[in-house]
Write a structure and sequence with these properties.
The chain is an alpha/beta fold. The protein has 3 domains: about 290 residues, Rossmann fold, CATH 3.40.50; about 100 residues, Rossmann fold (3-Layer(aba) Sandwich), CATH 3.40.50.1100; about 120 residues, Response regulator (Rossmann fold), CATH 3.40.50. It contains 19 helices and 18 strands. The strands form 4 sheets. Strands 4-5-13-10-11-12 form a 6-stranded mixed sheet, with helices on both faces. Helix 7 crosses helix 8. The relative contact order is 0.09.
Length: about 550
Protein backbone atom coordinates (compact mmCIF):
# COMPACT_ATOMS: atom_id res chain seq x y z
CA UNK A 1 0.00 0.00 0.00
CA UNK A 2 1.35 3.42 -0.93
CA UNK A 3 2.35 5.91 1.76
CA UNK A 4 0.69 9.34 2.09
CA UNK A 5 2.28 11.96 4.29
CA UNK A 6 0.10 12.75 7.33
CA UNK A 7 0.25 14.92 10.44
CA UNK A 8 -1.95 16.17 13.29
CA UNK A 9 -3.03 19.81 13.19
CA UNK A 10 -4.45 21.90 16.03
CA UNK A 11 -7.79 23.48 15.14
CA UNK A 12 -7.01 26.53 17.27
CA UNK A 13 -3.39 27.48 16.63
CA UNK A 14 -2.43 25.37 13.62
CA UNK A 15 0.48 23.58 15.34
CA UNK A 16 1.45 20.40 13.47
CA UNK A 17 2.81 17.25 15.15
CA UNK A 18 3.03 13.50 14.50
CA UNK A 19 0.25 11.25 15.79
CA UNK A 20 0.50 9.60 19.20
CA UNK A 21 -2.61 8.10 20.90
CA UNK A 22 -1.69 9.33 24.40
CA UNK A 23 -1.03 12.89 23.26
CA UNK A 24 -4.30 14.50 24.34
CA UNK A 25 -3.67 18.18 23.60
CA UNK A 26 -1.77 20.56 21.38
CA UNK A 27 1.76 21.05 22.79
CA UNK A 28 1.69 24.71 21.75
CA UNK A 29 -1.64 25.99 23.04
CA UNK A 30 -3.13 23.10 25.05
CA UNK A 31 -6.25 22.71 22.90
CA UNK A 32 -7.70 19.17 22.85
CA UNK A 33 -9.24 19.82 19.41
CA UNK A 34 -6.96 18.52 16.69
CA UNK A 35 -7.49 16.61 13.46
CA UNK A 36 -5.44 14.48 11.08
CA UNK A 37 -4.33 16.03 7.80
CA UNK A 38 -3.00 14.29 4.68
CA UNK A 39 -1.11 15.14 1.52
CA UNK A 40 -3.88 14.28 -0.96
CA UNK A 41 -2.07 15.20 -4.17
CA UNK A 42 -1.35 11.63 -5.32
CA UNK A 43 -4.37 9.91 -3.78
CA UNK A 44 -6.61 9.96 -6.88
CA UNK A 45 -4.06 8.14 -9.05
CA UNK A 46 -3.15 5.71 -6.26
CA UNK A 47 -6.70 4.67 -5.49
CA UNK A 48 -7.68 4.54 -9.14
CA UNK A 49 -4.82 2.13 -9.72
CA UNK A 50 -4.87 0.02 -6.54
CA UNK A 51 -8.33 -0.06 -4.94
CA UNK A 52 -9.88 -2.65 -7.29
CA UNK A 53 -7.38 -5.28 -6.11
CA UNK A 54 -7.59 -4.56 -2.37
CA UNK A 55 -9.55 -6.60 0.15
CA UNK A 56 -13.07 -5.31 0.94
CA UNK A 57 -12.56 -3.87 4.43
CA UNK A 58 -12.18 -0.41 5.88
CA UNK A 59 -8.41 -0.93 5.75
CA UNK A 60 -8.49 -0.65 1.95
CA UNK A 61 -8.41 3.11 2.64
CA UNK A 62 -5.28 2.88 4.79
CA UNK A 63 -3.57 5.90 3.22
CA UNK A 64 -6.15 8.13 4.93
CA UNK A 65 -5.95 6.50 8.35
CA UNK A 66 -3.45 7.82 10.90
CA UNK A 67 -1.49 4.60 11.63
CA UNK A 68 1.16 2.60 9.81
CA UNK A 69 -0.15 -0.42 7.97
CA UNK A 70 3.12 -2.34 7.79
CA UNK A 71 2.30 -3.96 11.15
CA UNK A 72 -0.04 -6.94 11.45
CA UNK A 73 -3.53 -5.58 12.03
CA UNK A 74 -6.14 -6.87 14.47
CA UNK A 75 -9.20 -7.47 12.30
CA UNK A 76 -12.68 -8.94 12.75
CA UNK A 77 -14.12 -8.33 9.29
CA UNK A 78 -14.94 -4.67 9.85
CA UNK A 79 -15.95 -2.30 7.09
CA UNK A 80 -17.42 -2.55 3.57
CA UNK A 81 -20.92 -3.08 4.94
CA UNK A 82 -23.73 -3.43 2.36
CA UNK A 83 -25.40 -0.48 0.67
CA UNK A 84 -28.99 -1.65 0.21
CA UNK A 85 -31.76 -0.41 -2.07
CA UNK A 86 -34.78 0.46 0.13
CA UNK A 87 -37.40 -0.04 -2.56
CA UNK A 88 -40.48 -0.53 -0.37
CA UNK A 89 -39.77 2.32 2.04
CA UNK A 90 -38.92 4.41 -1.00
CA UNK A 91 -42.24 3.51 -2.63
CA UNK A 92 -44.14 4.48 0.51
CA UNK A 93 -42.33 7.84 0.73
CA UNK A 94 -42.21 8.46 -3.03
CA UNK A 95 -38.42 8.54 -2.80
CA UNK A 96 -37.27 6.12 -5.51
CA UNK A 97 -33.55 6.68 -4.85
CA UNK A 98 -33.45 5.67 -1.19
CA UNK A 99 -30.58 3.51 0.08
CA UNK A 100 -29.51 2.11 3.44
CA UNK A 101 -25.93 1.75 4.64
CA UNK A 102 -26.31 -1.43 6.71
CA UNK A 103 -23.86 -0.99 9.57
CA UNK A 104 -25.53 -3.89 11.42
CA UNK A 105 -23.20 -6.17 9.46
CA UNK A 106 -20.11 -5.23 11.48
CA UNK A 107 -18.46 -7.67 13.93
CA UNK A 108 -20.53 -6.44 16.91
CA UNK A 109 -23.39 -5.21 14.71
CA UNK A 110 -22.97 -1.44 14.88
CA UNK A 111 -21.05 1.35 13.16
CA UNK A 112 -18.95 1.68 16.32
CA UNK A 113 -16.93 -1.32 15.10
CA UNK A 114 -15.10 1.15 12.86
CA UNK A 115 -14.20 3.34 15.83
CA UNK A 116 -12.94 0.40 17.88
CA UNK A 117 -11.02 -1.15 14.99
CA UNK A 118 -8.91 1.89 14.11
CA UNK A 119 -8.48 2.98 17.74
CA UNK A 120 -7.46 -0.44 19.10
CA UNK A 121 -5.00 -0.99 16.26
CA UNK A 122 -3.46 2.40 17.07
CA UNK A 123 -3.16 1.44 20.76
CA UNK A 124 -1.55 -1.88 19.85
CA UNK A 125 0.86 -0.23 17.43
CA UNK A 126 2.08 2.09 20.20
CA UNK A 127 2.35 -0.75 22.73
CA UNK A 128 -0.51 0.31 25.03
CA UNK A 129 -1.97 -2.48 27.16
CA UNK A 130 -4.98 -0.84 28.84
CA UNK A 131 -7.75 1.50 27.72
CA UNK A 132 -10.92 3.13 29.03
CA UNK A 133 -14.24 3.86 27.34
CA UNK A 134 -17.49 5.38 28.49
CA UNK A 135 -20.46 4.13 26.54
CA UNK A 136 -24.20 3.75 26.24
CA UNK A 137 -23.63 0.26 24.85
CA UNK A 138 -22.33 0.00 21.30
CA UNK A 139 -18.88 1.58 21.80
CA UNK A 140 -18.24 -0.69 24.78
CA UNK A 141 -19.29 -3.81 22.87
CA UNK A 142 -17.11 -2.94 19.88
CA UNK A 143 -14.07 -1.99 21.96
CA UNK A 144 -14.48 -5.11 24.10
CA UNK A 145 -14.34 -7.41 21.07
CA UNK A 146 -11.32 -5.72 19.48
CA UNK A 147 -9.46 -5.33 22.77
CA UNK A 148 -9.98 -9.01 23.53
CA UNK A 149 -8.51 -9.92 20.15
CA UNK A 150 -5.61 -7.49 20.63
CA UNK A 151 -4.83 -8.57 24.22
CA UNK A 152 -5.63 -5.15 25.68
CA UNK A 153 -7.37 -4.78 29.05
CA UNK A 154 -10.47 -2.60 28.79
CA UNK A 155 -12.38 -0.66 31.44
CA UNK A 156 -15.94 0.19 30.32
CA UNK A 157 -18.02 2.78 32.20
CA UNK A 158 -21.71 2.22 31.46
CA UNK A 159 -24.76 3.99 32.80
CA UNK A 160 -27.28 1.87 34.66
CA UNK A 161 -29.80 2.61 31.87
CA UNK A 162 -27.86 0.51 29.37
CA UNK A 163 -29.92 -2.63 28.60
CA UNK A 164 -28.68 -5.62 30.62
CA UNK A 165 -28.15 -7.66 27.45
CA UNK A 166 -25.58 -5.15 26.20
CA UNK A 167 -23.83 -5.12 29.58
CA UNK A 168 -23.68 -8.91 29.48
CA UNK A 169 -22.06 -8.89 26.05
CA UNK A 170 -19.48 -6.34 27.18
CA UNK A 171 -18.65 -8.49 30.21
CA UNK A 172 -18.36 -11.75 28.28
CA UNK A 173 -15.29 -10.41 26.43
CA UNK A 174 -13.49 -10.01 29.76
CA UNK A 175 -13.97 -6.25 30.04
CA UNK A 176 -14.06 -4.66 33.49
CA UNK A 177 -17.59 -3.22 33.62
CA UNK A 178 -18.19 -0.17 35.80
CA UNK A 179 -21.93 0.44 36.17
CA UNK A 180 -22.65 4.11 36.91
CA UNK A 181 -25.96 5.17 38.46
CA UNK A 182 -26.14 8.54 36.74
CA UNK A 183 -26.42 10.25 33.38
CA UNK A 184 -24.14 9.49 30.44
CA UNK A 185 -22.42 12.86 30.81
CA UNK A 186 -21.72 12.12 34.49
CA UNK A 187 -20.35 8.69 33.57
CA UNK A 188 -18.03 10.34 31.03
CA UNK A 189 -16.64 12.64 33.73
CA UNK A 190 -16.00 9.66 36.00
CA UNK A 191 -14.30 7.69 33.22
CA UNK A 192 -12.10 10.67 32.34
CA UNK A 193 -11.01 11.08 35.97
CA UNK A 194 -10.26 7.34 36.24
CA UNK A 195 -8.20 7.30 33.02
CA UNK A 196 -6.24 10.39 34.07
CA UNK A 197 -5.49 8.97 37.51
CA UNK A 198 -4.01 5.82 35.98
CA UNK A 199 -2.45 7.33 32.88
CA UNK A 200 -4.63 5.28 30.54
CA UNK A 201 -5.92 5.95 27.05
CA UNK A 202 -9.52 7.19 27.01
CA UNK A 203 -11.64 7.29 23.88
CA UNK A 204 -12.89 10.89 23.89
CA UNK A 205 -15.18 10.68 20.88
CA UNK A 206 -14.61 13.42 18.31
CA UNK A 207 -11.48 14.60 20.16
CA UNK A 208 -9.81 11.20 19.66
CA UNK A 209 -7.93 11.26 16.36
CA UNK A 210 -8.31 7.55 15.50
CA UNK A 211 -11.99 7.48 16.45
CA UNK A 212 -12.89 10.44 14.25
CA UNK A 213 -10.78 9.18 11.34
CA UNK A 214 -12.52 5.79 11.42
CA UNK A 215 -15.88 7.36 10.59
CA UNK A 216 -14.54 8.71 7.29
CA UNK A 217 -14.54 5.18 5.90
CA UNK A 218 -18.35 5.24 5.78
CA UNK A 219 -18.17 8.08 3.26
CA UNK A 220 -15.43 6.34 1.27
CA UNK A 221 -17.45 3.11 1.06
CA UNK A 222 -20.70 4.81 0.07
CA UNK A 223 -19.07 6.59 -2.88
CA UNK A 224 -17.16 3.54 -4.03
CA UNK A 225 -20.26 1.34 -3.72
CA UNK A 226 -22.35 3.83 -5.68
CA UNK A 227 -19.70 3.61 -8.40
CA UNK A 228 -20.26 -0.15 -8.46
CA UNK A 229 -16.89 -1.10 -6.97
CA UNK A 230 -15.25 -0.12 -10.27
CA UNK A 231 -12.86 2.55 -9.00
CA UNK A 232 -10.59 2.31 -12.04
CA UNK A 233 -13.42 3.10 -14.45
CA UNK A 234 -15.77 5.33 -12.50
CA UNK A 235 -14.01 8.53 -11.47
CA UNK A 236 -15.32 10.85 -10.28
CA UNK A 237 -17.37 8.67 -7.94
CA UNK A 238 -21.05 9.50 -7.51
CA UNK A 239 -22.22 10.91 -4.18
CA UNK A 240 -25.61 10.99 -2.44
CA UNK A 241 -27.61 14.20 -2.26
CA UNK A 242 -28.35 13.48 1.41
CA UNK A 243 -26.64 11.47 4.14
CA UNK A 244 -28.86 10.89 7.22
CA UNK A 245 -27.71 9.60 10.62
CA UNK A 246 -28.97 9.49 14.19
CA UNK A 247 -26.77 11.56 16.48
CA UNK A 248 -25.76 11.46 20.13
CA UNK A 249 -22.34 13.08 20.52
CA UNK A 250 -21.91 13.80 16.81
CA UNK A 251 -18.72 11.92 15.97
CA UNK A 252 -20.42 9.95 13.16
CA UNK A 253 -21.58 12.80 10.91
CA UNK A 254 -18.50 14.89 11.76
CA UNK A 255 -16.23 12.09 10.57
CA UNK A 256 -18.38 11.26 7.54
CA UNK A 257 -18.38 14.92 6.51
CA UNK A 258 -14.57 14.96 6.83
CA UNK A 259 -14.41 11.90 4.61
CA UNK A 260 -16.51 13.44 1.85
CA UNK A 261 -14.44 16.63 2.09
CA UNK A 262 -11.19 14.73 1.65
CA UNK A 263 -12.56 12.84 -1.34
CA UNK A 264 -13.49 16.10 -3.01
CA UNK A 265 -10.10 17.65 -2.21
CA UNK A 266 -8.44 14.62 -3.81
CA UNK A 267 -10.57 14.95 -6.95
CA UNK A 268 -12.39 11.65 -6.39
CA UNK A 269 -15.86 13.24 -6.08
CA UNK A 270 -17.34 16.51 -7.30
CA UNK A 271 -19.76 17.40 -4.50
CA UNK A 272 -20.33 16.85 -0.80
CA UNK A 273 -23.81 15.66 0.22
CA UNK A 274 -26.06 17.51 2.60
CA UNK A 275 -26.01 16.01 6.08
CA UNK A 276 -29.06 15.40 8.28
CA UNK A 277 -28.41 14.81 11.99
CA UNK A 278 -31.41 13.36 13.85
CA UNK A 279 -31.83 13.28 17.63
CA UNK A 280 -34.42 11.99 20.08
CA UNK A 281 -36.79 14.69 21.37
CA UNK A 282 -35.89 13.89 24.97
CA UNK A 283 -32.21 14.65 24.39
CA UNK A 284 -31.86 16.99 21.42
CA UNK A 285 -29.39 19.78 22.27
CA UNK A 286 -28.08 19.93 18.69
CA UNK A 287 -31.50 20.00 17.02
CA UNK A 288 -32.72 22.73 19.37
CA UNK A 289 -29.64 24.89 18.84
CA UNK A 290 -29.83 24.42 15.07
CA UNK A 291 -33.51 25.40 15.00
CA UNK A 292 -32.58 28.62 16.84
CA UNK A 293 -29.62 29.35 14.58
CA UNK A 294 -27.24 29.08 17.54
CA UNK A 295 -23.62 28.05 17.08
CA UNK A 296 -23.42 26.62 20.59
CA UNK A 297 -25.77 24.01 22.05
CA UNK A 298 -27.24 24.38 25.53
CA UNK A 299 -26.71 21.12 27.44
CA UNK A 300 -29.61 18.83 28.34
CA UNK A 301 -28.96 17.93 31.97
CA UNK A 302 -31.67 15.30 32.39
CA UNK A 303 -32.41 13.35 29.18
CA UNK A 304 -35.96 12.03 28.90
CA UNK A 305 -35.90 9.30 26.28
CA UNK A 306 -36.05 5.51 26.27
CA UNK A 307 -33.39 5.51 23.56
CA UNK A 308 -30.44 5.45 25.93
CA UNK A 309 -27.86 5.18 23.14
CA UNK A 310 -28.61 8.81 22.22
CA UNK A 311 -28.35 10.47 25.63
CA UNK A 312 -25.33 12.74 25.19
CA UNK A 313 -26.70 15.86 26.83
CA UNK A 314 -23.70 18.08 26.13
CA UNK A 315 -22.20 17.72 22.63
CA UNK A 316 -19.79 20.59 23.31
CA UNK A 317 -17.62 21.76 20.46
CA UNK A 318 -18.60 18.85 18.19
CA UNK A 319 -21.88 20.63 17.52
CA UNK A 320 -20.12 23.92 16.80
CA UNK A 321 -17.81 22.22 14.29
CA UNK A 322 -20.77 20.59 12.57
CA UNK A 323 -22.68 23.87 12.56
CA UNK A 324 -19.77 25.77 11.01
CA UNK A 325 -18.94 23.15 8.40
CA UNK A 326 -22.52 22.49 7.30
CA UNK A 327 -23.50 26.14 7.07
CA UNK A 328 -20.31 27.05 5.21
CA UNK A 329 -20.34 24.01 2.97
CA UNK A 330 -22.90 21.52 1.69
CA UNK A 331 -25.75 22.50 3.98
CA UNK A 332 -28.02 20.18 5.87
CA UNK A 333 -30.36 20.04 8.81
CA UNK A 334 -30.59 18.95 12.43
CA UNK A 335 -33.95 17.78 13.71
CA UNK A 336 -35.48 15.58 16.38
CA UNK A 337 -38.20 12.93 16.57
CA UNK A 338 -40.21 11.44 19.40
CA UNK A 339 -39.59 8.00 20.86
CA UNK A 340 -42.95 6.89 19.46
CA UNK A 341 -41.93 8.03 15.98
CA UNK A 342 -38.67 6.13 16.32
CA UNK A 343 -40.31 2.89 17.44
CA UNK A 344 -42.82 3.21 14.62
CA UNK A 345 -39.96 3.61 12.13
CA UNK A 346 -38.26 0.60 13.71
CA UNK A 347 -41.29 -1.54 12.96
CA UNK A 348 -41.58 -0.22 9.41
CA UNK A 349 -37.93 -1.00 8.66
CA UNK A 350 -38.51 -4.56 9.84
CA UNK A 351 -41.83 -5.10 8.05
CA UNK A 352 -40.94 -3.44 4.74
CA UNK A 353 -37.20 -4.00 4.36
CA UNK A 354 -36.49 -7.01 6.58
CA UNK A 355 -34.12 -5.05 8.82
CA UNK A 356 -34.14 -5.57 12.58
CA UNK A 357 -32.65 -2.30 13.80
CA UNK A 358 -31.85 -0.75 17.15
CA UNK A 359 -33.93 2.21 18.39
CA UNK A 360 -31.05 4.64 17.75
CA UNK A 361 -30.95 3.61 14.09
CA UNK A 362 -34.72 3.99 13.95
CA UNK A 363 -34.31 7.64 14.94
CA UNK A 364 -32.54 8.21 11.60
CA UNK A 365 -35.40 6.57 9.71
CA UNK A 366 -37.99 8.57 11.65
CA UNK A 367 -36.04 11.69 10.72
CA UNK A 368 -36.22 10.67 7.07
CA UNK A 369 -40.00 10.25 7.34
CA UNK A 370 -40.33 13.73 8.83
CA UNK A 371 -38.11 15.22 6.14
CA UNK A 372 -40.20 13.54 3.43
CA UNK A 373 -43.44 14.84 4.92
CA UNK A 374 -42.10 18.38 5.17
CA UNK A 375 -40.71 18.37 1.63
CA UNK A 376 -37.09 18.72 2.75
CA UNK A 377 -36.06 15.79 0.55
CA UNK A 378 -37.42 15.29 -2.97
CA UNK A 379 -38.05 12.29 -5.19
CA UNK A 380 -35.19 13.09 -7.59
CA UNK A 381 -32.58 13.05 -4.78
CA UNK A 382 -30.33 10.12 -3.87
CA UNK A 383 -30.59 9.56 -0.12
CA UNK A 384 -28.46 7.28 2.08
CA UNK A 385 -29.57 6.48 5.63
CA UNK A 386 -27.09 5.06 8.13
CA UNK A 387 -28.65 1.97 9.72
CA UNK A 388 -26.25 2.26 12.62
CA UNK A 389 -26.96 -0.91 14.58
CA UNK A 390 -28.89 -4.12 15.09
CA UNK A 391 -31.66 -4.66 17.66
CA UNK A 392 -29.93 -6.55 20.50
CA UNK A 393 -32.35 -7.77 21.71
CA UNK A 394 -35.80 -6.96 20.31
CA UNK A 395 -37.29 -5.42 23.43
CA UNK A 396 -40.97 -5.67 24.23
CA UNK A 397 -41.63 -1.92 23.85
CA UNK A 398 -40.56 -2.20 20.21
CA UNK A 399 -43.51 -4.46 19.40
CA UNK A 400 -47.11 -3.38 18.72
CA UNK A 401 -50.02 -4.51 20.87
CA UNK A 402 -51.29 -7.96 19.90
CA UNK A 403 -47.99 -8.85 18.22
CA UNK A 404 -48.52 -12.59 18.74
CA UNK A 405 -51.38 -15.05 18.85
CA UNK A 406 -51.05 -17.76 21.47
CA UNK A 407 -52.31 -21.28 20.81
CA UNK A 408 -52.48 -23.71 23.74
CA UNK A 409 -52.58 -27.20 22.26
CA UNK A 410 -53.03 -28.76 25.71
CA UNK A 411 -56.47 -27.17 26.00
CA UNK A 412 -57.77 -28.68 22.77
CA UNK A 413 -55.73 -31.80 22.10
CA UNK A 414 -57.44 -35.18 22.44
CA UNK A 415 -54.96 -38.00 23.12
CA UNK A 416 -56.83 -40.50 20.97
CA UNK A 417 -57.53 -38.06 18.14
CA UNK A 418 -54.57 -35.67 17.80
CA UNK A 419 -55.63 -34.38 14.37
CA UNK A 420 -58.89 -33.06 15.83
CA UNK A 421 -56.93 -31.35 18.59
CA UNK A 422 -54.68 -29.65 16.08
CA UNK A 423 -57.66 -28.56 14.00
CA UNK A 424 -59.29 -27.07 17.07
CA UNK A 425 -56.15 -25.08 17.79
CA UNK A 426 -55.91 -23.84 14.21
CA UNK A 427 -59.53 -22.71 14.32
CA UNK A 428 -58.52 -20.29 17.06
CA UNK A 429 -56.68 -18.37 14.36
CA UNK A 430 -60.01 -17.64 12.69
CA UNK A 431 -61.70 -16.12 15.72
CA UNK A 432 -61.59 -12.84 13.86
CA UNK A 433 -62.49 -13.42 10.23
CA UNK A 434 -59.80 -12.56 7.72
CA UNK A 435 -60.75 -9.35 5.94
CA UNK A 436 -60.68 -9.62 2.15
CA UNK A 437 -58.99 -6.65 0.45
CA UNK A 438 -58.54 -6.03 -3.27
CA UNK A 439 -55.64 -3.77 -4.25
CA UNK A 440 -55.89 -2.32 -7.78
CA UNK A 441 -52.82 -0.57 -9.18
CA UNK A 442 -50.89 -0.97 -12.42
CA UNK A 443 -47.59 -0.56 -10.55
CA UNK A 444 -46.40 -3.86 -9.06
CA UNK A 445 -44.23 -2.09 -6.45
CA UNK A 446 -47.22 -0.10 -5.20
CA UNK A 447 -49.35 -3.25 -4.91
CA UNK A 448 -46.59 -5.10 -3.10
CA UNK A 449 -46.13 -2.23 -0.63
CA UNK A 450 -49.82 -2.10 0.32
CA UNK A 451 -49.99 -5.90 0.52
CA UNK A 452 -47.02 -5.92 2.88
CA UNK A 453 -48.49 -3.19 5.08
CA UNK A 454 -51.79 -5.02 5.37
CA UNK A 455 -50.33 -8.45 6.00
CA UNK A 456 -47.88 -7.09 8.57
CA UNK A 457 -50.75 -5.56 10.56
CA UNK A 458 -52.86 -8.66 10.99
CA UNK A 459 -55.85 -10.51 9.64
CA UNK A 460 -56.05 -9.41 6.01
CA UNK A 461 -56.20 -11.57 2.91
CA UNK A 462 -55.02 -9.48 -0.01
CA UNK A 463 -55.81 -9.91 -3.70
CA UNK A 464 -54.13 -7.90 -6.44
CA UNK A 465 -55.21 -6.56 -9.81
CA UNK A 466 -53.09 -4.62 -12.26
CA UNK A 467 -56.06 -3.09 -14.07
CA UNK A 468 -59.83 -2.77 -14.24
CA UNK A 469 -60.51 -5.93 -16.24
CA UNK A 470 -58.46 -8.05 -13.85
CA UNK A 471 -60.17 -6.37 -10.89
CA UNK A 472 -63.61 -7.23 -12.26
CA UNK A 473 -62.50 -10.82 -12.73
CA UNK A 474 -61.40 -11.02 -9.08
CA UNK A 475 -64.63 -9.42 -7.89
CA UNK A 476 -66.62 -11.95 -9.92
CA UNK A 477 -64.92 -14.82 -8.14
CA UNK A 478 -65.08 -13.75 -4.47
CA UNK A 479 -66.60 -11.10 -2.20
CA UNK A 480 -64.29 -8.46 -0.75
CA UNK A 481 -64.57 -6.22 2.28
CA UNK A 482 -62.55 -3.32 0.90
CA UNK A 483 -61.11 -2.00 -2.35
CA UNK A 484 -57.90 0.06 -2.42
CA UNK A 485 -57.70 1.73 -5.80
CA UNK A 486 -55.27 3.79 -7.87
CA UNK A 487 -56.93 6.16 -10.34
CA UNK A 488 -54.42 6.22 -13.17
CA UNK A 489 -54.18 2.97 -15.15
CA UNK A 490 -53.41 2.29 -18.80
CA UNK A 491 -56.80 0.85 -19.82
CA UNK A 492 -60.03 1.95 -18.16
CA UNK A 493 -59.14 4.36 -15.35
CA UNK A 494 -60.19 4.22 -11.72
CA UNK A 495 -62.91 6.86 -12.14
CA UNK A 496 -64.84 4.59 -14.51
CA UNK A 497 -64.41 1.61 -12.21
CA UNK A 498 -65.76 3.52 -9.21
CA UNK A 499 -68.85 4.61 -11.17
CA UNK A 500 -69.39 1.07 -12.46
CA UNK A 501 -69.16 -0.51 -9.01
CA UNK A 502 -71.56 1.98 -7.44
CA UNK A 503 -74.18 1.10 -10.05
CA UNK A 504 -73.94 -2.63 -9.32
CA UNK A 505 -76.03 -3.92 -6.40
CA UNK A 506 -73.39 -6.58 -5.63
CA UNK A 507 -70.66 -4.00 -5.00
CA UNK A 508 -72.48 -0.79 -4.11
CA UNK A 509 -71.77 -1.15 -0.38
CA UNK A 510 -68.12 -2.19 -0.70
CA UNK A 511 -66.00 0.68 0.70
CA UNK A 512 -63.33 2.19 -1.55
CA UNK A 513 -60.14 3.94 -0.50
CA UNK A 514 -58.37 5.75 -3.33
CA UNK A 515 -54.57 5.91 -3.08
CA UNK A 516 -53.16 8.00 -5.91
CA UNK A 517 -50.33 10.28 -6.94
CA UNK A 518 -52.65 12.28 -9.21
CA UNK A 519 -53.60 15.86 -8.34
CA UNK A 520 -57.36 15.96 -8.98
CA UNK A 521 -59.17 18.64 -10.90
CA UNK A 522 -62.46 20.03 -9.65
CA UNK A 523 -64.35 17.94 -12.20
CA UNK A 524 -62.55 14.76 -11.09
CA UNK A 525 -63.40 15.49 -7.46
CA UNK A 526 -67.04 15.77 -8.45
CA UNK A 527 -66.89 12.39 -10.20
CA UNK A 528 -65.72 10.76 -6.95
CA UNK A 529 -67.93 12.72 -4.58
CA UNK A 530 -70.13 10.43 -2.49
CA UNK A 531 -68.68 7.31 -4.12
CA UNK A 532 -65.43 6.73 -2.20
CA UNK A 533 -64.69 6.59 1.51
CA UNK A 534 -61.29 8.28 1.50
CA UNK A 535 -58.66 9.67 -0.85
CA UNK A 536 -55.01 9.45 0.16
CA UNK A 537 -52.03 10.82 -1.76
CA UNK A 538 -49.10 8.47 -2.36
CA UNK A 539 -46.04 9.57 -0.45
CA UNK A 540 -48.01 11.82 1.91
CA UNK A 541 -48.92 9.14 4.45
CA UNK A 542 -47.22 6.42 6.43
CA UNK A 543 -48.57 2.97 7.19
CA UNK A 544 -50.28 3.95 10.46
CA UNK A 545 -52.43 6.53 8.68
CA UNK A 546 -53.46 4.04 6.01
CA UNK A 547 -54.24 1.42 8.65
CA UNK A 548 -56.31 3.89 10.68
CA UNK A 549 -58.39 4.68 7.61
CA UNK A 550 -58.86 0.99 6.84
CA UNK A 551 -59.88 0.24 10.43
CA UNK A 552 -62.30 3.17 10.37
CA UNK A 553 -63.87 2.10 7.07
CA UNK A 554 -64.23 -1.54 8.12
CA UNK A 555 -65.48 -0.90 11.65
Amino acid sequence: MSRVESWIECLDCGEQVVYEPLSLACPACGSPWREARYDLRSLRETWQRELPSREPSLWRYGELLPIRLDEKLVMLGEGMTPLLDASQLGEMLRLPHLMIKDERQGPTQSFKDRQASVSVNALRLFGLQEAVVCSTGNVAMAYSAFCARAGIKLWAFLTSLVPPEKMHEVAVYGTEVIKVAGTYDQAKQLAAAFAESRGLYLDRGARSIAALESMKTIAFEICEQLAGMRAADSLPWPTPDWYIQAVSGGIGPLGVLKGFSELRAAGLIEKIPKIACVQADGCAPMARAWASGCREAAPVRHPETYITTLTTGDPGRTYSLLFDRLTAGPGGIMLSVSDDEAFHALNLAAKLEGLSIEPAAAVAFAGLFKMAREGIVSRDELIVVNCSGHAIPVERQMLPAGWATELNLEDSALPARPREGLSAALRLLDRHRMRQVLVIDDQADARRLIRRLLEAHGAYEVYEASGVSQALKVLGQRPVDLIILDLMMPETDGFDLVERLKKDDAFREVPIIVVTAKELTRKEWQRLSGKINRLMVKGDFLDDELMREIDHVLS
